[in-house]
Amino acid sequence: MEIWNSIAEIVVNQTGYLSVMYFAVVLLVALDLWSGVKKAKQRREATMSQGYKRTIDKLAKYFNTLLVLGIVDIVILISPLYPLSKVFPSFPYFSLVGVLFVAFIEMKSIREKAEDKRSYKSASILVGKIIDSKDDVQKIIEEVINYMNMTDKKYLEKYEKVKGDEEDNECCSGKCKGV
User: Fold this and answer.
1) Looking at the predicted structure, is the pLDDT value of residue 162 above 50?
2) How far apart are CA 12 and CA 5, in angstroms?
3) Contact indicator for 82, 10 with CB cutoff of 8 Å
4) Assessment of whether the complete model's pTM goes beyond 0.70
5) Cα–Cα distance for residue pair 163/157, rounded to 1 Å
């Protein structure tokens, strides 16, 4: 019975630390979500439910990892060997390392510039165009030169205008469901 009281005391003592750490993770993910929505508005993209689902999935993965680390911390603290080591005070060190790792990832995500995301999108469009015209070397060279001579914003505007025109042509020819 005494061991269960000791375990309960350790768990209760660590709950405050763990609560603050878990709240910090929720706050960081919320800041990343806010930042992502703001960047999408800058790029004039619609926010989709898939992005929100990814945020919830990310939060679930973070919490699963932190729960495992919290259990590891508690197992170490209730271990018979821990009292022999009075060098380290009773604290959830593994959970702290996990939270710091999550904080690093989220801060990096928040600091990503909207222009960087635009650059990734324009580069992926270029790769798609290269794949589409893999048999026509001249067309590939022209597209690469075209890409290199434009800013990412101009390249995306050109691509989206061409894509929009193709969609208009499909609707005009009766292929879309609305007609």
Assistant:
1) yes
2) 10
3) no
4) no
5) 10
